[in-house]
Amino acid sequence: MGLPVTDLDMATNLPPERVIALAEAANIRAIPTGIDHGTVTLVVDHVPIEVTTLRRDVETDGRHAVVAFTEDWTADSARRDFTLNALYLDPDGTIYDPTGDGLADARAGRLRFVGVPGDRIREDALRILRLFRFLASHGRQGPDPDAVSACVALAPLIETLSGERVWTELRKLLVADGAAKALKLMESTGVARHLWAGPVKTNVALRLIELETALNRSSDPVRRLAALASDAETVATERLRLSSADRDRLGRALAEKQDSLANDPARRAAIYRSGGEVFVDRLLLTAVNAMTDHQVLTADLAIIDNWLAPRFPIGGADVLALGLAPGPDVGAVLRAVEDWWISGDFTADREACLSALKSRIEGDE
Predict the structure, then answer these.
(1) Residues in CB range of 223: below 8 A, 6 or more apart
(2) What is the C-alpha to C-alpha distance for residues 34 and 55, in angstroms, rounded to an integer?
């Protein structure tokens, strides 16, 4: 398809225990990451490669599958989600296409389930979201109508999936080149409303994507989630269960609005106080909700690319060295001097800051 390779998965007819033994004999680190499902991760030159034994489903409940190992490549391909994901490549470059449709569908960027769409979805309801995610990343044409119909009919099953699995697919969808196309289809078909309990603000997310594109800013899944969910913090915590780092990022992005600023000193002050990443989040999210023209934001964002926030040149030890007793007053006087330093556009050096610190302490005394 002409797309970059981001990971390498291997399939084998050897049982996982044999894979581990062969890897160890070759001094390759082997990690039994999913050994019950036949997956062993080999680490070669710090690159993880998943090696999975050929499988067939014995029992499925829409979320998890009980599998049995097999040596039948056709049986293994039959349990995969899409025809373009059921292709195998030998080391010599030979491509195997057990379904007979995978290679043509991959070249065409066509999303079709292997076999009966409803059967594949009932095996694992996450495949509904995977259809839209692959549409966003690999779809060069609309998905198969039968696939979409099955996703719509079985969309309530999304609500039974764990938040972690939903977020894994959604975060990839949100940053794919075709994210807007996939989100529009999820909205128009009614699939989107099953992501979480509250409203899904597709139009706001689409405006954010347009704004990021116009301003040549990289896409970000957390920022786009903040635009997509009406109560993003609750969704992040209770439904999707984002990592603590992502939850913190989301909370800080939504904590305050950030309007366009009038001059560079004000921009530098805002960036210093919030951090560059959060400054961009707040700026873009505020602009999207206020329908601000993207040209207004150009100067605000130019600072991000051309200015590195300096480090405040004094600290608590300097306060104590001037005779102030340990306690809350130390932090208070430091914050006051830091505010003075920021208001001067960060031009005061260490000596000037120490002088300001001394004056403030003596003045307080």
Answers:
(1) 208, 253, 280, 281, 284, 285
(2) 13
